[in-house]
Write a structure and sequence with these properties.
Layout lengths: L9 H25 L2 H19 L2 H7 L4 H31 L12
Length: 111
């Protein structure tokens, strides 16, 4: 009984980690250059949870969380789910940012 375990090889986990962290790096670079606060917050949370989800590998769990592997695996599953959720939120907010019409200049309060 217990939580599901992913028994990927070390090279497969490394490839998954490289792909995910590259995507997150590209998103963060895009947000640095072209982002607004509406899209930057989901990108920041995406980055935080992606780091946890990718760095908490099976080898790390076996070495540092030997007696609490069930809890470490649950933490990893939650981090993966939160990464996916914030990626979807980031996609939605970025899509809305580009599809919504701009606010007319006479409605913007200028100081």
């Amino acid at each position: 009984m217990g939580l599901p375990r992913w028994n990927f090889s070390d090279s497969t986990e490394r490839k998954i980690r490289i792909v995910i962290l590259t995507i997150v790096g590209v998103i963060m670079a895009y947000e640095k250059c072209y982002g607004v606060s509406l899209t930057q917050y989901p990108a920041m949370y995406l980055c935080v949870f992606a780091l946890i989800a990718t760095l908490l590998t099976n080898a790390v769990q076996r070495r540092y969380f030997t007696f609490v592997m069930e809890y470490a695996q649950a933490f990893r599953i939650v981090a993966i789910l939160m990464t996916c959720a914030f990626f979807i939120i980031w996609l939605m907010t970025t899509y809305e940012r580009f599809t919504l019409p701009a606010t007319p200049s006479h409605l913007i309060y200028n100081l």
